[in-house]
Design goal:
This protein has about 120 residues and is mainly beta. It contains one helix and four strands. The protein has one helix at about 60-70; strands spanning about 25-30, 35-45, 50-55, 95-100. The protein has a four-stranded antiparallel sheet, covered by helices on one side. The radius of gyration is 15 Å and the shape is globular.
Length: about 120
C-alpha cells in the first residue's frame, strides 16, 4: 500500500502541499539512518504510484533507495526502478532515481533462486 510520510511533506513555497493533495507532493526526508536529506516527489496518478529521489551532487545509493521504498510502501510491496528504451529516455535531473509500482497490477518477479540461494 502506498502511503506518504506526511511529517516530511513540504508545506510552503512553490512546491508546498498539504493532506488535501493525498499522495502527491514534495517531501524532504531526513533520518539518522541516512546521511543527507533526500528530496522526494511522490504521485499516484495515471495508474502508477511513483517516488523520485534526488540529491544535489550525486545519485542516491541502494541503501537510500531501500529506505525510501520502506518509507512509502509496505514491506511486501514490490516496486521497481526502470531502465527505459533509449528512445523514451528523459533526464531532467542528473542525480535523480525513480521507484514505480503499477496500481492494481502485480509486478512479475523471478523465482528467488535465480537471484541466489536463501
Amino acid at each position: 500500500m502506498f502511503h506518504v510520510p506526511h511529517k516530511f511533506r513540504v508545506i510552503t513555497g512553490p512546491m508546498g502541499s498539504d493532506a488535501r493533495y493525498g499522495n502527491n507532493g514534495q517531501f524532504i526526508v531526513r533520518s539518522l539512518k541516512i546521511k543527507n536529506p533526500l528530496l522526494c516527489q511522490a504521485s499516484d496518478g495515471r495508474g502508477w504510484e511513483h517516488v523520485s529521489v534526488s540529491l544535489p551532487g550525486r545519485c542516491p545509493t541502494w541503501e537510500e533507495m531501500s529506505f525510501i521504498k520502506k518509507l512509502f510502501w509496505d514491506p511486501e510491496d514490490v516496486v521497481m526502478q526502470l531502465h527505459p528504451a533509449e528512445s523514451d529516455y528523459i533526464n531532467c535531473h542528473p542525480f535523480c532515481l525513480h521507484l514505480w509500482r503499477p496500481i492494481g497490477q502485480l509486478i512479475p518477479v523471478p523465482e528467488s533462486i535465480l537471484v541466489g540461494p536463501k
